[in-house]
């Protein structure tokens, strides 16, 4: 069976493999296709697509955006977007500027707490145009010896409700979906079982998001149980949404999660990709 992975991060955001290395690793893992879905950026997409074309791996241009839904943060994946869309680029600049302001405020807070960091400290081992996230701050704290393991950064300093945490400005879910559609893509809710909802609440959430224009749901995911997947697939049928799947691979920043296989049992069939392309009227 041909397998794919539609949720992958590179050094363009908070992954540890470059976009080229992602394509090469996908080839080594025997995957037929991947989607590069970095946070709030498409900076690595063209590089990854070029390498994929050279080595025979399909690379879908993608993105992952954090969005506000009535006070709840949800993650929206975009697939088959045009990375050079002027509408997309202008909107992403707003998001990236917001991240930059947030990062500076968090660094100020950390200095007050006795853990001074500079922007240069975040840039170690990063490529140009990297979108810096809390993962980069955690790595810098570890390198500087302020913490002994990465998870301590989130439990002690930069996790929600911690003293150096600053909320980030986000678009609404509707604005994210519209942005993805305007860039020619499909909008998908990422990892729906990670938001702390019951299955009944997830069903209601998806009903609401379908009215906002959502196209699909990430049903197959590294932490979803078989029962979760079955439930989400049923909801997709009811709401006429298409299913997707991915590992949420971040390289060494999430070392337990491997590309294509997640925690070891993930399998995302190529048929999913074919259904997505059909939605867009695309053919091979």
TrEMBL record:
Domain Polymerase/histidinol phosphatase N-terminal positions: 4-69
Protein name, per record: PHP domain protein
Molecular function terms, GO-annotated: 5'-3' DNA exonuclease activity; 5'-3' RNA exonuclease activity
Gene3D superfamilies noted in UniProt: 1.10.150.650, Metal-dependent hydrolases (3.20.20.140)
Domain of life: Bacteria
UniProt xrefs under InterPro entries: PHP_dom, PHP_domain, Pol/His_phosphatase_N, Pol/histidinol_Pase-like
Matching SMART domains: POLIIIAc (SM00481)
One Pfam family, short name: PHP
Matches recorded under CDD domains: PHP_HisPPase_AMP (cd07438)
């Amino acid at each position: 069976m041909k397998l794919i992975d539609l949720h992958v991060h590179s050094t363009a955001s908070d992954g540890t493999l470059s976009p080229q290395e992602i394509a090469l690793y996908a080839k080594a893992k025997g995957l037929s296709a991947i989607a590069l879905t970095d946070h709030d950026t498409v900076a690595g997409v063209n590089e990854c697509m070029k390498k994929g074309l050279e080595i025979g791996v399909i690379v879908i241009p993608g993105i992952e955006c954090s969005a506000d839904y009535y006070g709840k943060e949800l993650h929206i994946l975009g697939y088959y977007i045009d990375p050079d869309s002027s509408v997309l680029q202008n909107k992403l600049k707003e998001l990236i500027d917001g991240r930059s302001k947030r990062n500076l405020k968090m660094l100020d807070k950390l200095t007050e707490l006795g853990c001074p960091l500079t922007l240069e400290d975040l840039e170690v081992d990063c490529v140009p145009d990297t979108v810096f996230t809390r993962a980069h701050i955690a790595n810098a704290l570890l390198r500087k010896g302020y913490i002994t393991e990465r998870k301590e950064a989130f439990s002690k300093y930069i996790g929600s409700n911690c003293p150096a945490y600053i909320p980030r400005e986000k678009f609404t879910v509707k604005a994210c979906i519209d942005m993805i559609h305007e860039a020619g893509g499909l909008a998908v809710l990422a990892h729906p079982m990670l938001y702390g909802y019951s299955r009944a609440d997830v069903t209601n959430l998806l009903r609401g998001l379908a009215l906002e224009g959502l196209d699909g749901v990430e049903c197959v995911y590294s932490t979803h149980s078989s029962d979760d997947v079955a439930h989400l697939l049923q909801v997709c049928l009811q709401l006429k949404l298409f299913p997707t799947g991915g590992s949420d691979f971040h390289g060494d920043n999430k070392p337990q999660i491997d590309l294509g296989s997640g925690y070891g049992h993930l399998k995302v069939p190529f048929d999913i990709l074919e259904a997505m392309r059909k939605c867009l009227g695309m053919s091979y």
